[in-house]
Amino acid sequence: xxxxxxxxxxxxxxxxxxxxxxxxxxxxxxxxxxxxxxxxxxxxxxxxxxxxxxxxxxxxxxxxxxxxxxxxxxxxxxxxxxxxxxxxxxxxxxxxxxxxxxxxxxxxxxxxxxxxxxxxxxxxxxxxxxxxxxxxxxxxxxxxxxxxxxxxxxxxxxxxxxxxxxxxxxxxxxxxxxxxxxxxxxxxxxxxxxxxxxxxxxxxxxxxxxxx
Length: 212
What we know:
By secondary structure, the chain is of the alpha+beta class. The chain has helices at residues 19-33, 46-62, 68-95, 100-104; strands at 127-132, 138-142, 150-157, 168-170, 176-179, 187-196, 199-200, 207-210. The chain has two domains: 19-104, no CATH class; 127-210, Immunoglobulin-like (Sandwich), CATH 2.60.40.10. Strands 3, 4, 6, 7 and 8 form a five-stranded antiparallel β-sheet that branches. It has a three-stranded antiparallel β-sheet with strand order 1-2-5, with no helix packed on it. The radius of gyration is 18 Å and the shape is globular. The model is unreliable at 115-119 (pLDDT under 50).
């Protein structure tokens, strides 16, 4: 008897996800679902979802200065955004026909599953090299991981204490990517992860380089 693959499920437990990272996740889901032919009838109006994300992002920025009112408003808008995100996540996992590649095209993150030691899983990828391209551009080469369905690359500016700021995520079609729009004279950190039949690997260790 042919063994069926584990069901692809969306990682919707975002309670502990920091605000800035949550904004990135929400935006990725909106942008990848918008016009996606594999998910033609989302249960949430996508312009409404986008407006909710933008409202939450504004509240996050306004809450940086503290204050009970600003923090309460941020939390309220965060909750509203998560409610819509969860509705879309359930729709995506029900509509992807259990196909990991179709699921990944939605912009949602697949829920990690514990697998038996005899099951095959991906080895973590890594950043092979970072080269300077045009001014404001860095070119990234990633290690090839066999049987990977796709890779995700993220990058963030690094502060004086070598701490990355807000991550920006992109999905290269191959193991090489050109990242444009970077600020010359700024050091950036890059991480990569792979997606396979059992979900995502961990993010790789950061590789850094100053952009010129």
